[in-house]
Amino acid sequence: MRMKYIYQQFISHISVIIVAFLVLSLLFAYYVETQVYQNKVEELEQYGGHIWKDMQLNQFRQRDVLLQYYNVLDGRKIHFVIFDENGRLLPILPVGKFPKIDTTAEEWERIWKQIKNGQTVVIRQDIRRFDQEVTFVAMPYVSDGEFVGGIFLFSPISGSREMISEINKFLFYTVIIALSVSLLLSWLLSRIHVNRIKKIQEAASLVSSGDFTVHVPASDFDEIGELANDFNHMVVKLHSSMEEIESLENRRRQFMSDVSHELRTPLTTISGVIEGLRNNMIPEEEKEKGMRLVSHETKRLIRLVNENLDYDKIRSNQITLNKENIQVMEVLEIIKEQLFLQAEDQRTKLIVEVDENIIVYADYDRLVQILINITKNSIQFTKNGTIWLRGMASYKETIIEIEDTGIGIEPKEIENIWKRFYKADISRTSNPYGEFGLGLSIVKKLVQLHNGEIEVTSQKEQGTKFVIRFPFPTSLHTYE
What is the pLDDT of residues 204-249, one digit of tens each? Predict the structure, then answer.
């Protein structure tokens, strides 16, 4: 059976309150009744003690003393009789008001034995004649160590039931008032909690339908508030993930468009040259030029395929690094020689600044790949400028810097340049590595595989600096 949460809350609150009040009422009534009974017993014992004492002091006028006590105590609804050592009542006082104790012979035998042993016996019984409980107190008198008789006192526990009834009545009124207040408070609290939960439920429904902009009121006051906090955090993460997925999908579509375009162009060129050669449509003096063009476009296609395969291998950790100590100056000089012509086409200078004794612990081929990617990227966007290739040793690491005076990168685009398929300028199509937005992604993955770090700083129209940090191996110390 389905029951709404608000009713569950409401019923649980009221049940707890009702049970608490019932237990409290029973305990309080029992406590009051016990106290009344105990007070009555103590009162009878005190009177019994006084009677015996006065009888001892006034042995020659015992009857007068007993009659005085009888008249006084009768007004307080306390009655007593005197009995001798054999249990016979002495005919000193009227016994008409003294009720008969309702006990069996065995019980009376046990009670009488206790009395003869000098023990005060208390008996509590319901007497129909008085229509209420009656307390009997039997107090033995012992003289010179011998039992000589005693006194029986009895008194109705007057007003005890009436008092308990009054208390129960007031408790009942209290319960009614408390229940009324608690009903209202429980309903309000239940409504508040249910409304908070319903807001989270409605927000979850919106999220499931694709709306990641929802926000629910949150707090640290209770678990529901903490749940709302976690829910908002989850929505933010989902929103960020969806934006990333959408951005990745857009870049993927752009990438496919670029790849299709780049594949179509060289394939068209290659197909045209081959058809021309087959049909002898190309003059003899132009055939060599056509073959060079086919070779160039073929290598371009191979680079595109290798770049994608390379990225997938790096991303899935399918490559093995063969690390060794490499002289940084040697590597930077090789980079300068390989890219000298490209830099000259841009009228850009390549300057190497590094000491001969600077060593980097890395995989040679991958280190060259990293530096060529970054340097080509700098050449592409630096005209009539300068590119510095620097190497230096720091505490437990080797630092390589590539700095240019090119057009720079917008601050909002710096974090995006490491993403796959991303191109800050959609017109970048002349760089063999990175022309499809994979170059810098490969660079970062390779640096991370070396347990290194790479960071970039840039200002628009003022240039860009890449800083790469390669850690020393544990057996290698800092180079001076």
Answer: 888 888 777 788 877 767 677 777 888 888 888 888 888 778 877 7
Structural domain boundaries, residue 347: 320-471
Q: Report the predicted TM-score, pTM, of the whole model to 2 decimal places.
A: 0.42
* Same structural domain, 156 and 280: no
User: pLDDT class for 433, splitting at 50, 70, 90?
Assistant: very low
On whether residue 175 sits in a domain, the answer given is no
For residue 260, give the CATH number of its domain.
Answer: 1.10.287.130
Q: Does the residue 297 lie in any domain?
A: yes
**What's the structural domain count of the chain?**
3
The per-type count for the chain, helices as H runs and strands as E runs, is 10, 11
CATH code at position 34:
3.30.450.20
Cβ distance 335 to 372 under 8 Å?
A: yes
Paired strand residues for 124: 135
Same-domain check for residues 282 and 360: no
Question: Which stretch, 94-98, 238-242, 265-269, has highest mean pLDDT?
Answer: 238-242
| Per-residue buried b or exposed e for 26-47, using 16+ beta carbons within 10 Å of the residue's own CB | eeebeeebeebbeebbebbeeb
The answer to whether the CB of 286 falls within 8 A of the CB of 318 is no
Main-chain dihedrals φ then ψ at residue 401, nearest 5 degrees: -120, 140
Are residues 340 and 445 both part of a single domain? yes
Predicted local distance difference test score (pLDDT) of residue 461 = 85
> Residue 479 — pLDDT band, cuts 50, 70, 90?
very low
357 against 313, higher pLDDT? 357
CB 122 within 8 A of CB 135: yes
Closest by CA to 132, choosing from 161, 152, 154, is 161
pLDDT in tens, 321-347: 889 999 999 999 988 988 888 899 999
E-only strand ranges, 317-385: 323-327, 349-354, 359-363
Report the alpha-carbon distance of residue 172 to residue 466 in Å, rounded: 83
